[in-house]
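Q: Got a minute? One more chain.
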Amino acid sequence: IRAIGLETIFVTPKVLEEDNADPFAPVAVAQPLTPALVAEIKALPGVADVSPTIQLPRAMDIRLQFGDETTAISLITDLGRDAFEPDPDPIAGRILQPGETTGVVLSETTVERLGQTPQDVVDQPATLIIKTPRGEQTEISTTIVGVSSFEGRSTFIGNDERAAIKAWWYNQPNFLEEEGYDTLLVQAASIESVASVSAALEARQLETQTLQEVLNLAARIFAVLQTLLASVGILALFVASLGVVNTMIMAIYERTREIGVLKATGAAPGDIRLLFMVEAAMMGFIGGVTGVLFGTLLGKLVDWIAHRYLEAEQITGIGTLSIVPLWLALGALAFGTLVGLLAGLYPAARAASLDPVQALRYD
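A: Always. Here it is, folded:
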């Protein structure tokens, strides 16, 4: 998220009601993201930058020709704008920066398929060959501006090349002026101006989404999960309390004669009550110790499994996921003791109220 920032606003055209009678009809939008609209958005107060994006059809067969060699390539939609992926590292040349609209960035694998080295292809002309499923094809001239650490045949091309490809594909020379870009990344000048910029964009019949909205949605989801987990915890606590009460009542039945002897030898009801409350509190304390130990060990196991999975997915830099601070462990012990103490109030009061004569006769 830090890679993009909370100042970023994702903008897409507002889709009008679709024609259910014709599923193959073109999608109608209220306001296409034309270059004129992009210029208008750039002039809005609080807008620092606007980066348009053009997505190409998936059925497109694209190859890159360099000299006498030709190889298939796989296009990347966004370059260095994914909040959850590290920015690509340039091996030679440079990466297209925001505002640059012309050029091609190749992967090292693609350069090897062309029989070249990264340094030999930088700032050299190349040709994009686009072919339709029907066999029609066109060629678009471009320039290789850099080689990056992309995976496989991944390649990034600028918006100028994308616009030319899309105009040919749909046979619309003025494609951008008529259909517009697919999405916009609007960079607000500050976090405080995000709300006003979003309102101005929505007033132009555009759909907006900010990272803050995504974070708020995630926070609401986690709040629901925490509520569910808290409900399970309260239910488990209630069952545990019933277990303590049941155990103490059974102890009273088994030690009725002992209680009678204690009372007959001068023990006051308060002494009997204190005895059973201390036993109940000890049960809660021992349960707290056991819970802290098993919880810590289980957390370490989950942490180990999660790190192995994240490493397999090539996600690094993740710290410890399960931490049991000292204050939490001590709090758990104190809370377990308190629960045991509260659960032992009724059994202790019942034990203190026993008639010593009847208790001595109990068999």
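A: Residues 80-84 have pLDDT under 50 and may be disordered.
Q: Perfect, thanks.
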